[in-house]
Amino acid sequence: KQEVTQIPAALSVPEGENLVLNCSFTDSAIYNLQWFRQDPGKGLTSLLLIQSSQREQTSGRLNASLDKSSGRSTLYIAASQPGDSATYLCAVRGTGNQFYFGTGTSLTVIP
Amino acid sequence: GAVVSQHPSWVICKSGTSVKIECRSLDFQATTMFWYRQFPKQSLMLMATSNEGSKATYEQGVEKDKFLINHASLTLSTLTVTSAHPEDSSFYICSARVPYGELFFGEGSRLTVL
User: Do the chains contact at B101 and A93, CB–CB below 8 Å?
Assistant: First the structure.
């Protein structure tokens, strides 16, 4: 069964810093990988989707990479802002219809 | 991106009553929707996969008679928590997948059973 791990579980950085969130998965036979953010008491907001054939995706200050063979993805956030504070989740879609979620990284950006 | 709407966002009910939560895909058709449960400070736990026009597929350990799922149209899936008890209090979230594979989530529904 696919297992998805996110490190670190929590991260606190001063405003303006660049940061990297990590996601690892045990089964490289994936269809795609998606990054989400979740604000307290809210649903998940999709940030970036990387198909299995892609290496990276970019949206504004966010850049996500995918290395399928090593079972890793990173989410890079440039010039962090207090509004980036949230929990970030990665999800891996298996070759079927299943989605596997990591436990998330709780990010706090200090003004 | 696509929009998935959930209603209600917050519901409080008495023990023993049933509660229905709706999940709608507003600008696309979703043959498959997913229902999750989330406990505080934990990740999402998939409860069931809702398939339009057929029975839902439940994850192991999820009671089918307790959590009734109906997916009667391509834009609406409902989750009914029957005879709710305090231990059913949780945050319930639905999601739907667009054809190219991206997953979109509703805003979540917080259920509190007194």
Answer: yes
CB spacing of B101 vs A49 below 8 angstroms: yes
A7 φ, ψ to 5°? Answer: -135, 135
Give the pLDDT band of residue B1 (cuts 50, 70, 90): confident
A88–B contact, CB cutoff 8 A: no
Nearest to B105 by CA among A45, A51, A86: A45
What's residue A28's pLDDT?
Answer: 92
Q: What average pLDDT does this structure show over B73-95?
A: 95
Contacts of A51 in chain B (CB under 8 A): 101
DSSP structural state of residue B54: S
Residue A10 CB-density burial (10 A; 0-12 exposed, 13-18 middle, 19+ buried): exposed
Which one of A42, A97, A102 has the shortest CB-CB distance to B43?
A102
Cα(A12)–Cα(A8) distance, rounded to whole angstroms? Answer: 10
User: In angstroms, rounded to a whole number, what is the distance separating the alpha carbons of residues B74 and A53?
Assistant: 29
Structure tokens at A25: 């998965």
